[in-house]
Design brief:
Layout (H helix, E strand, L loop, with lengths): L3 E18 L5 E20 L5 E5 L11 H12 L1 H7 L2 E6 L10 H16 L6 H11 L3 H6 L2 E6 L3 E4 L7 E7 L6 H12 L7 H12 L2 H7 L3 H7 L1 E2 L2 H7 L1 H11 L5 E4 L6 E5 L2 H15 L4 E7 L6 E2 L3
Parallel strand pairs: 1-8, 3-4
Antiparallel strand pairs: 1-2, 1-12, 2-4, 2-5, 5-6, 7-10, 7-11, 9-10
Helix pairs in contact: 1-2, 1-3, 3-4, 8-9, 10-11, 11-12
The structure holds cytidine-5'-monophosphate (C5P).
């Protein structure tokens, strides 16, 4: 049977605002999500047994059922039991390029690629909305990873409204390899400190979403105004993560003092990104910040914004 290779790009949050609590225990969010070219590779093929097997070249990535990619395969087997019985087990190999536990949706994108890969391998012909529905059962930002690009995400993060693509900018990613931030911890700590500002009434939630929809950052993206985009980046979770991890705050300050268009922590961190006009500017700033901070545990990547979600690898 045919095997499939897929490209699973990471994402950054250009904007992340926490609006309030939801009945399901999650937070009501309004975000602007943006794909980046830095991507993992997922190879998927049928196996001789009925088992799901997972391999990964990164020692920190679990290869058991705690891995989201494994859970994505399991969800497909449970959702389409007859097709699963017909085709047999699934063998998945993940080649990691996106930093792990970084706020860049690496694990989520791998899971999205597994859904897309199995859909192709089993010739299910699922539509984008059907794939996004399945993705939403696995995690809040997995639906976005399917189609990628630039999108406003609301609800838990699973309701998507694609907007004008923004793919002409470069981005530096920087992450301390000795720090990982628990996403549940970040949201829970935010709730403890800021729930007095939460709104709950549907009309108030809608108003907060509309403020972003018609707001300055979306307008700047539509107008491709990179100077403004850089200045309007926003992430509520910085309020809890930066005080807890001073080196991450220091990293953000270093980018803020550079010539970059703007800088922000992505998701629940600890990756900090900086937007740049050109690749050479991004490389120069990455080197300056590396030299200024001189922290041995700090890793850098230079990549480009992208308008793609999961794609088939054509080589
Ligand atoms: O959906 P995902 O697995 O990415 O969420 C990880 C954790 O982040 C959740 O368990 C929850 O604690 C928090 N979260 C939240 N509200 C959201 C998304 C995530 O509270 N909309």
């Amino acid at each position: 049977m045919q095997s499939y290779s897929l490209i699973a790009p990471g994402k950054i949050n250009l904007y992340l605002e926490i609006i309030g609590d939801r009945d399901d225990g999650f937070h009501e969010l309004v975000m602007l999500l943006q794909s980046i070219e830095l991507a993992d590779r997922i190879d998927i093929k049928a196996s001789d047994t009925q088992a799901i097997t997972l391999h990964c070249n990164h020692p920190q990535v679990p290869t058991d059922q705690t891995n989201l990619a494994y859970r994505a395969a399991k969800l497909m087997c449970q959702t389409f039991p007859e097709v699963y019985a017909n085709y047999g087990g699934i063998d998945i190999t993940i080649t990691k390029n996106i930093p792990v536990a970084a706020g860049l949706a690496g694990g989520s994108s791998d899971a999205a690629a597994v859904l897309v890969g199995i859909d192709l391998m089993w010739k299910l012909g699922l539509t984008k909305p059907e794939l996004e529905d399945l993705a939403g059962k696995l995690g809040s930002d997995i639906p976005f990873c399917i189609s990628g690009g630039t999108a406003i995400a609301t609800g838990r993060g699973e309701k998507l409204d694609p907007i004008q693509d923004l793919n002409n900018l470069w981005v530096i990613l920087a992450k301390h390899n000795n720090i990982s931030v628990s996403t549940p911890w970040a949201y829970q700590t935010y709730r403890q400190n800021y729930s007095n500002s939460y709104v709950r009434e549907p009309k108030d939630v809608k108003m907060r979403q509309e403020l972003v929809n018609s707001g300055a950052l979306v307008t700047a993206i539509i107008n491709q105004n990179s100077q403004k985009i850089g200045k309007l980046l926003y992430n509520d979770l910085e309020k809890v993560v930066l005080p807890e991890y001073p080196v991450v705050a220091q990293l953000k300050s270093a980018f803020a003092s550079s010539e970059a268009l703007g800088t922000m922590m992505s998701g629940s961190g600890p990756t900090v990104f900086a937007i740049c006009q050109t690749q050479s500017q991004a490389k120069t700033i990455a080197k300056q910040v590396r030299d200024t901070l001189a922290q041995p545990n700090l890793d850098f990547w230079v990549t480009k914004l992208s308008n793609s979600g999961i794609q088939l690898q054509t080589d």
